[in-house]
Amino acid sequence: MVAAMKRRSLAALPLLAAASAVLPGCAAFGSDRSGIVVTTNILGDLTRNVVGDQVEVTVLMAAGADPHSFGVSARQAASLEQAELLIHNGLGLEEGVIGHVEAAVAAGVPDLAVGEHVDPIDYSADATAGLPDPHFWTDPVRVGEAVDLIADRVIEQVSGIDAEQVRADAEAYRAQIDELHEHTTALFGRIPEEHRKLVTDHHVFGYLAQRYDFEIIGAVIPSGTTLASPSASDLKDLADAVAASGVPAVFADSAQPDLLVQAMAEETGVDIEVIPLFTESLTEPGQGAGTYLEMARSNAEAIAGGLAGH
Amino acid sequence: MPHATRARIAALTAGCALLAGCSSGAPPGEDAPTPHGYVEGAEETAEAQLRLVMADTETGAVHMLDPVTEETVEVAQFEGAQAMDTDGRFVYIGGASSTEVLDSGVWTVDHGDHVHYYRTEPRTVGGIDGSGFAPIGDPAVTVLNSAAHVIALDRESLEAGEAGASDELDAEAVLPYGRRLLAVDGGAVRVLGRDGSLESELDATCAEPQGQTVTRRGAVFGCRDGAVLITGDDELTAETIPYPGAGVDGGFHHRPGTAAPAARSETGGILVLDIKERRWTEIPVQGVVAVTATGEDSPVLVLTDDGVLRSYDPASGAELARLALMTITDGGTPAIQVDTARAYVNDPAGAAVYEIDYRDDLRLARTFEVDFRPDLMVETGW
């Protein structure tokens, strides 16, 4: 029944969107807005856990995409302007759709910029120091706050919704997030204090570092042409970072991790382990980060596994 | 509740359908979701996608070499190619009186604290009247400067495979900077909106602009009496950095974005501009075939007509290393292209490209042998 409903309303939406896109007059049906539109797939997962099947949730960013640069089709842009509620990350994350988000908000679509309400921190790196860091989801505590914010806003804005059900669903999901935080705390508790250092070229773990008391050691990860014929000077930055951390774990996406490990050993005599993490997007189901909980748990286990054993 | 939602959608759709125009719908093409990136079919990659685009001026064949896979593919055929330059993604292959545009299909989007790398299929875009262009681009526009005229190309059109959307700009030299254009005309330095409208005139003069470039520390025009440096975000300011003696002759060459561009001087040597220190360094080398700077506190590379590649300290001008690379013959234009890790030099007569580790005393990292004459070469993907 639920599945059948979804199929039908999905079929109806393009018609609606197409019609209103062509005719500005259709926007006058202000009270006939429907559905929740969410920009990123991480926020989409949180929102679906909060509202269940009560209301259609449209997520603009595909699995495995980049939240900074994903774009939307004309149909999606139109659906955004007809949304009953628009949930976005904010803090400058969704550069590719910021124009559409701003237009929808200007047109009166109620919105929630989640990142702005979860006590954002600033980047500390040189080039962007002082700018707000949008990647709050690497801190499960803030994600828990985000779940409550989403529930409140949904109850406030989505007409006819069963508020009690939303509260119950949000609470149940919040309990899973709390459990994730406890699990993560316990995992990281096994890492000796002096090894709580992430050697990485990722820029998203500032919130995780603050929550769980890690130091981020930024490093240039040699890649491509450098690995084809490396010298010690190519690998010095990474070797220095690994030496500073005291552990061999390097958290990075490398197209050729084995080649990187080999080059480091041969040229600098430093043994490293290259550990990939999920950063800014959920994956398709079954590919390691199909949900937020799966993504965060996987990262926590990878970090603990890389740092605790040494 | 699901029923109520569905009913509302149905009612709204029906309501609209009664109004004229509602039934026409969006074009089918716009209905497909474009979940990711700016270009249909573009793939984001974990690492920079660098390519060496080379043309054999005898046969007109244009090849692309991927230095990671070491594979070379022929991507286009342009008869009469004489010169080649790039804005990082699009390659401008100049002939006698027209220029062909090739989309190399690899590029980088800089988000300040991090970058994104993209890859799509290379393709030919089309032709533009005129030649001798020096391109310089940003995500919205690529400006082509030449002695005869200045043209602005809309990046979105280029990405869609069309070279047609171009505007001729009424100025001697133009740069895209921030969300605006900087234009030199009749000695004046002006700030223009993206539509070409005049916003303001800066307090500097630039006679006889020779070359222009954009760096992380500001935009630079090489003028008769010195470099005019333009800095700032919203409020732009201009200042002149006078030449120590002879001025620059021709354009600036440097690793994209880096703030120590190099140029040939009127006396045949090299001039390096340290933007941070507002200071020029002269390197009295003669017989320059190609030059480029690799960054602040990083060597300036010069290929001389004896086929030797030399590196120089950009602050003192002292020679740091040298490497005999090739025999320079008539025909072909050896060029030095630099990225964050390596420099590449094409050897037309030797049918080879040399990969140089410029931070390691010009260590020859790899030699790529090719089965054509690489007369012209640029690196794309930045």
From TrEMBL, chain A:
Keywords from the UniProt entry: Metal-binding, Signal, Transport
Signal sequence interval, chain numbering: 1-27
Molecular function terms from GO: metal ion binding
Name of a matching Pfam family: ZnuA
Chain coiled-coil ranges: none
One of the GO BP terms on file: cell adhesion
GO cellular component: cell envelope
Subcellular location: Cell envelope
InterPro entries membership: AdhesinB, AztC-like, Bact_metal-bind_prot9, Lipoprotein_PsaA-like, ZnuA-like
Record family assignment: Belongs to the bacterial solute-binding protein 9 family.
Protein's UniProt name: Zinc ABC transporter substrate-binding protein
Organism: Glycomyces albidus
Automatic annotation (TrEMBL), chain B:
PROSITE patterns documented for this protein: PROKAR_LIPOPROTEIN
Signal peptide from the UniProt entry: 1-25
Keywords (A to Z) from UniProt: Signal
SUPFAM superfamilies: YVTN repeat-like/Quinoprotein amine dehydrogenase (SSF50969)
Stored InterPro entries: Quino_amine_DH_bsu (IPR011044)
Record-given protein name: ABC transporter
Species name: Glycomyces albidus
